Amino acid sequence: MDEKRVSNQKASEKNKKERNNHRAREIKSDKFKRVQSPSSINTYNQCPRKYYYNYIEELETFPSIHLIRGKLTHSVLEDFFKVDITKVSESNFMFELRIVLMELFKKHWNENADEINDLDLTQNEINFYHEETKEMVISWFKRFIHNIADDMNKVGLINAFKKHTPKTEEEFISEEHGVRGFIDAIYEYEKDVSNPSGKSDANILGNIHSRCEKEVYLIDYKTSKKAVITTEYRLQLAIYALLYQEKYGFLPKKAGLDFLKFDSAPLYLDVDKELVEMAKREVAKIHENTKTTDKKQYRKNITSLCKWHSGQCDFYDVCKDDE
Ligand code: SF4
Question: What integer best gives the mean pLDDT of the chain?
């Protein structure tokens, strides 16, 4: 067996172990056969048979450059928000923060380098993805720093940084609906309801005379090629809104996607009862459709996503010879 195959197998075993740990934690409830996620629901909607191979037979899955770079980009941004801003100078903050970001990018890319090198990619392709991923991080940084610069004159660097620092990678599990998810970034603002002109800085200014209500914005980072809220993304955001409401007892104001490849602000959906009800219905439908372990009940959806010029579905080889 060649080295690359052994290494891919190791990565795949790691994936399977993670998935099994994940399942062991999940199967606590008698109410559901398994806890769903935006990813499992999307898999079912894309191809029920793929769901069967992945979540019921638990066949091996393989890493891809898109998964690896998605994961490492999330880690870079998550770590960036942990920077000790008190050590950054107001006069040179753009330059200093950019250095911090680039160091983090280098660190996380290097930590994933073995896994990336084991993929079936040429050195040119690896270089391309390295540069493209770096550009995404820089593009995000430009928007972030623009927001900081806007607020800095009013409240100073430390408070401006605090204002634009979200809660990151928070895990949510709904016992009631049997669904889970990690929300990349949660921004909480205090809206001054005694001043209807917009978001208030009362939270960072400590203005005790303001009457404030919390406004929450949920964000998922995407490295996709197109900046569009597809049906699949809409459902993901609806599930996040549902999870947030169940944990905190109120609805976020908006849920959106930050398309890192694009030099523009996140695209948001307004969150309302209707959106959350749609999420409940879709999650319930998947639970119902995936109760059975009879493979024949999971139809194959043969499309261009089965095999394309540079890759194929993880289960293509099993699937093509299967009934
Ligand atoms: S190869 Fe195509 S039909 Fe088969 S499981 Fe994958 S996506 Fe579904």
Answer: 87
- Which of these, 35, 5, 10, 17, lies nearest to 239 by C-alpha position? 35
Write down the pLDDT at residue 225: 86
Q: What is the pLDDT of residues 172-225, one digit of tens each?
A: 999 999 999 999 999 998 876 666 555 544 344 434 455 667 899 999 999 988
Sorted by where each starts, the structural domains of the chain and their CATH numbers stand as 35-288 (3.90.320)
State which residues of the chain have pLDDT below 50: 1-27, 200-208
The Cα 140–Cα 269 span in angstroms is: 20
Residues 278-290 pLDDT 10s: 999 999 999 999 9
User: What's the gap in Å between 298 CA and the centre of ligand 1?
Assistant: 11
Ligand 1, atom nearest to 302 Cα: 3
What residues does ligand 1 touch, defined as CB less than 6 Å away?
47, 49-50, 53, 300-302, 305-306, 313, 315-316, 319
Instruction: Enumerate residues 6+ apart whose C-beta is below 8 A from 13.
Output: 60
Q: Does residue 136 contact residue 223 with C-beta atoms inside 8 Å?
A: yes
Contact 164, 144 (CB under 8 A): yes
CA distance 252 to 187: 10
d(CA 16, CA 277): 33
